[in-house]
Specification:
alpha+beta, Muramoyl-pentapeptide Carboxypeptidase, domain 1, L,D-transpeptidase catalytic domain-like, about 35% helix, disordered C terminus, cell wall biogenesis/degradation, Peptidoglycan-binding protein, PGBDSf, signal, transferase
Length: about 550
């Protein structure tokens, strides 16, 4: 951007911040008269935060009162520095100026205040919602990241009796995120800078004794795999068990043997952090403020599995079939709210299928696809003999195709709707054979469910004393019946090719739609993956 353009932006933002001075802010109940005189320090601080609208709003609304640099605010500075120092454990790059901030200890000038504020804003933005904007990466990534505004986070930070505890609430709080972080810690070894010896020698197994075993014991303890012993150089059963637990978490064979590959990983060498873990952590941050402990439907597309979760735990799961890898059939990633279970659904054929697949067949034979009704814009069934299909193209075909409820209906006996512009939903299918495949990407984009009736009954729990009976009555009617979910249920269509199971084992799943390299390239552009001395040099995606 030209220098003059940048100057206009800074001047405009500064004007907004200064205009806000004297107005009621987040911490004020009444609005005093606007101020017209500002000191040089106030002007310097306003300039220092003007590029960030959240910071400008906060400082403008609090008369530019310091948050970090007053003498009594040392606990806030310490809490922020500790949080910035944990960036590597979140899979974040070393871009938060922690060393420069630490060197400012004792300074009370506006430059120091602005520097602390900018690092606070950047870290909370990144750890709370990701360092990459997902929407531009791929047409199938339709995720909107719900974030907490910077000024709201600052208000919580200032009000918190324990600033460090408040900052601990900013990253995702889900079980999945915690498990991924633990796996990353195991993958990259102890945090750089810890005074720990490199583990020499090996290999060792239970019963062996060597001075290097003591170093192994120390490094494992630093990562949370503690096996205290009065004979630290003896490879005892407790150490073998903790080593096996570490290996499971690191995605290594859990044999409890300290071989070359395990020791390289323990020492934080060679393998580095698997890119899959770093991508998964970023994708989990994209979930933003979504409550992942709520009752919800969670569909992990590369896993070909749908789950119902409560409190972060799976209460039901089923195989699914997702969209094929054709560009116009890939199932998108997004979050919404499931509103209805529709029993005996009609199938309103998507227009793309109607015009690309069925219209050419109808132009050759008006009696083709006889199981489908031709329907006008008012929902009336039109006799086929009254339609000259040859007159129409994909662009001007005025009718819809619809299939009545039946055992042969393409949607089976039930569908699960969360209205969206892509017309994506979950549904039953009469074609059960595809659920026997391991790589289940065959649909036009919607998600076919292997156990739809059980899913319906689980989702209807709480809406009726006997959910199964409610479903059975609707099914027996033979009519299309909408059973509303009250309250509506969050549904998340997600794309995690690296997961951590309940036993701490890393699982690698197929990148069905080739989206991971796009995410990784964006992360590298944001500063990740470079050897920054903190153990985040990375291994290959295939690891």
């Amino acid at each position: 951007m030209p220098r003059r353009g940048r100057a206009r932006i800074i001047t405009g933002a500064l004007a907004a911040a200064i205009a806000a001075l004297g107005l009621a802010g987040p911490m004020q109940a009444a609005a005093p008269a606007p101020r017209l005189d500002f000191s040089a320090d106030e002007m310097a601080l306003a300039r220092g935060v003007a590029r960030n609208p959240g910071l400008a709003a906060w400082y403008g609304g609090t008369a530019l009162a310091p948050v970090f640099t007053a003498p009594q605010q040392a606990p806030r500075r310490a809490a922020l520095l500790a949080a910035l120092g944990s960036a590597a454990t979140h899979g974040l790059p070393d871009v938060y100026d922690a060393a420069a901030l630490a060197a400012m200890e004792g300074r009370t000038d506006p430059g120091a205040e602005a520097a602390f504020a900018r690092s606070f804003a950047r870290w909370t933005h990144d750890v709370g919602g990701g360092i990459v904007n997902p929407r531009p990466l791929d047409p199938g990534i339709l995720r909107e990241v719900p974030r907490v505004p910077t000024e709201t986070l600052l208000a919580r930070f200032v009000a918190a009796p324990d600033p460090a505890a408040m900052l601990d609430t900013v990253p995702p709080q889900s079980r999945e995120y915690r498990a991924l972080r633990e796996a990353l810690t195991a993958a990259i070894g102890p945090v750089a800078g810890a005074d720990l010896p490199t583990v020499p020698g090996g290999p060792w197994r239970e019963g062996m004794q060597d001075p290097g075993v003591a170093a192994l014991r120390l490094r494992l303890a630093a990562m949370g795999f503690d096996a205290e012993s009065d004979t630290p150089d003896l490879f005892d059963a407790a150490l073998a068990g903790q080593l096996a637990a570490y290996q499971r978490r690191a995605g290594l064979p859990p044999d409890g043997v300290a071989g070359p590959r395990t020791l390289a990983r323990v020492n934080g060498a060679a393998q580095g952090a698997p890119q899959g873990l770093l991508i998964a952590l970023e994708r989990m941050r994209w979930m933003g403020t979504h409550d992942l402990d709520a009752r919800m439907v969670w569909v992990n597309l590369p896993e070909f599995v749908a789950r119902v979760k409560e409190g972060g735990a799976t209460v039901f799961q089923t195989k699914v079939v997702i969209g094929s890898d054709a560009p116009d059939r890939r199932t998108p990633e997004f979050s919404d709210e499931m509103e209805d279970v529709v029993v005996n659904p009609r199938w309103n054929v998507p227009r793309s299928i109607t015009t690309k697949e069925y219209l050419p067949r109808l132009q050759k034979n008006r009696n083709a696809v006889a199981h489908l009704d031709v329907v006008d814009s008012r929902g009336r069934v039109i006799p086929r003999e009254s339609v000259d299909f040859g007159r129409y193209t994909a662009g001007n075909f005025p009718y819809r195709l619809r299939q009545k409820p039946s055992d042969d209906n393409a949607l089976g006996e039930v569908k699960f709707i969360f209205p969206n512009s892509m017309n994506i939903y979950l549904h039953d299918t009469p074609s059960k054979g595809l659920f026997n495949e391991s790589r289940r990407a065959f649909s036009h984009g919607c998600i076919r469910v292997a156990r739809p009736v059980e899913l319906a009954e689980v989702l209807l729990e709480g809406t009726a004393a006997d959910p199964a009976a409610r479903y059975a009555r609707a099914r027996a009617s033979g009519r299309e019946t909408f059973l509303e979910l009250t309250p509506h249920l969050p549904v998340h269509l997600v794309y995690f090719t690296t997961t951590v199971d309940e036993n701490g084992r890393i699982r690698s799943l197929p990148d069905v739609y080739g989206r991971d390299p796009l995410v990784w390239a964006a992360l590298v552009k944001a500063g990740l993956g470079r050897d920054n001395g903190r153990g985040l040099e990375t291994a290959a995606l295939a690891e």
